[in-house]
Design a protein that fits this description.
Residues 150-380 form the Sigma-54 factor interaction domain. The chain is α/β, with parallel strands linked by helices and 458 residues long. The protein has helices at residues 6-19, 38-44, 48-51, 66-73, 115-143, 155-168, 184-193, 212-220, 238-241, 257-269, 295-300, 306-312, 329-343, 352-361, 367-381, 389-395, 398-403, 412-430, 435-442, 446-456; strands at 23-28, 33-36, 77-85, 88-98, 104-113, 174-177, 202-206, 221-222, 235-236, 246-250, 271-272, 281-282, 286-291, 315-318, 349-350, 386-387. The protein folds into 3 domains: 6-113, 2-Layer Sandwich (Beta-Lactamase), CATH 3.30.450; 146-320, Rossmann fold, CATH 3.40.50; 330-456, Helicase, Ruva Protein, domain 3, CATH 1.10.8. It has a 5-stranded antiparallel sheet, with helices on both faces. Strands 7-10-13-6-14 form a 5-stranded parallel sheet. The longest helix is centred in the N-terminal third of the chain and has 29 residues, at 115-143. It is elongated. 25% of the residues are buried.
């Protein structure tokens, strides 16, 4: 590769200085500006034809002029942070300039504008701080009373919590009733953790998840050699695991009838026999059962033992569906958004009225479980920091959209506004944000479109 001729070096240097994104300033030994590139114009908002030929101190305070220090000390500096004004952040590298005889003829400064980087870093710091605050809130809540995990402040949920807190201090058997997804296991755990058995095991067992042929061995355990495939040393069942603690029976209505007979005996005698065993094993357990079935009707049909039903139905707790406590939806939505903002390291905000109106107008057949899963999906899928009503409407399944506003006192104008907002958002997406094309597609003028974009926060 050939060397650049001395005649062309100046042209190359001039091109480099012009295209540099760093502000380049050159002064003579008196402080008079002899060079000021385009980046310097943009950084300091001073035109080159205005400042060249004039002393730099006419435009900046002496304490802010690093070039004078260089002229005085004749030593270079590198990446020195400087803030010439509140909204500007600069890294300065500066060096004295000497002629061929070693005489000082001036100084040059290269200033890198890092304002955008500093602002981004500040924003990230604020975001991280908020996330840490949210995380700490969750940790603090977990350390509080066990029932603090059950959210909601409606009258109906407060009444149920009060009853659960009262029964938790006793050893009474509890039968929790409620639809799927209302939080029956949360109540069971809270009762256990508030009881005198809290330092002993809490053993949950889903009766519907165990195949009937395996139920007895899973429930009561088995001795070695009791059946083909049995572990050599035998195995303790769920009842033994729960000894001293709490056994939580979920989906109680699916427990096989033959197991119900043996379980009733366990409750009466306080002992079990493993499958293949002849030795009685004492167990001390508290039972909390839960079901979404109508056990009374099952008893009438002979599908559930009457004596076991009355044995378990000492203190019934009916957990309301989310439809029965819609006033708790705002609190639950906020809770889940905070939870998943921490989990996925996102800072999500939302327009309260629009969002809550949509959430509260749907009947949520899957109850809190469905609501929680839906909020998680929203947080995962949204690309914006601000969650809007249109984001939810886009993500709701068709069956939800059809029922969303059935029982909601929403005006026709409100419905029209929601539809219009959705159409504008879709048009902007179709035109890649080109407002002229979007306005044409919608049949609006550009002025009207801008007004509506502002109105709907798009």
């Amino acid at each position: 590769m050939g060397k650049i001729s001395r005649d062309n070096i100046l042209f190359y240097l001039e091109a480099i200085l012009k295209t540099s994104k760093d502000a380049v300033t050159a002064v003579d030994k008196t402080g008079r500006v002899v060079y000021w590139n385009e980046a310097a114009e943009n950084t300091y908002q001073i035109k080159s034809n205005e400042i060249i030929g004039k002393n730099i101190e006419n435009y900046f305070q002496m304490k802010d002029i690093k070039l004078y220090e260089i002229l005085k000390d004749k030593q270079p500096i590198f990446d020195v942070y400087h803030q010439p004004r509140p909204d500007k952040h600069i890294l300065i590298s500066s060096s004295p300039v000497f002629d061929s005889d070693g005489n000082l003829i001036g100084a040059i400064s290269v200033d890198r504008d890092i304002t955008a980087t500093v602002k981004l870093n500040d924003k990230l710091s604020v975001t991280n701080s908020k996330l840490q605050d949210l995380k700490q809130q969750v940790i603090n809540q977990a350390k509080n009373l066990p029932f603090s995990s059950i959210k909601g402040s409606s009258k109906i949920i407060n009444q149920i919590k009060a009853s659960a807190i009262k029964v938790a201090t006793t050893d009474a058997t509890v039968l929790i009733l409620g639809e799927s997804g209302v939080g029956k296991e949360l109540f069971a755990q809270a009762i256990h953790e508030s009881s005198s058995r809290k330092r002993k095991p809490f053993v949950p067992i889903n009766c519907g998840a165990i195949p009937s042929p395996l139920f007895e061995s899973e429930f009561f355990g088995y001795e070695k050699g009791s059946f083909t495939g049995a572990e050599k040393g035998g195995k303790a069942g769920k009842l033994e695991e729960a000894n001293g603690g709490t056994l939580f029976l979920d989906e109680l209505g699916t427990m096989p009838l033959d197991i119900q007979v043996k379980f009733l005996r366990t409750l009466q005698e306080g002992e079990i026999y493993r499958v293949g065993g002849t030795k009685a094993i004492k167990v001390d357990i508290r039972v909390i059962a839960a079901t979404n079935s109508m056990l009374e009707k099952m008893v009438e049909k002979g599908e559930f033992r009457e004596d076991l039903y009355y044995r378990l139905n000492v203190v019934p707790l009916h957990i309301p569906s989310l439809q029965e406590r819609l006033e708790d939806v705002p609190e639950l939505v906020n809770l889940f958004i905070e939870e998943f903002s921490i989990k996925y390291q996102k800072e999500i905000q939302f327009q309260t009225n629009d969002i809550i109106e949509i959430f509260s107008s749907y009947h949520w057949p899957g109850n809190i479980r469905e609501l929680r899963n839906f909020v998680e999906r929203l947080v995962v899928m949204t690309d914006d920091a601000v969650l809007q009503a249109s984001d939810i409407l886009n993500m709701l399944p068709q069956r939800v959209k059809k029922t969303t506003f059935v029982n909601t006192p929403i005006t026709i104008q409100d419905e029209i506004s929601l539809i219009e907002k959705e159409r504008i958002k879709k048009a902007l997406e179709n035109t890649q944000g080109n407002k002229t094309l979007a306005a044409k597609e919608l049949g609006f003028s550009r002025v009207t479109l801008y007004k509506k974009i502002t109105k709907y926060g798009l």
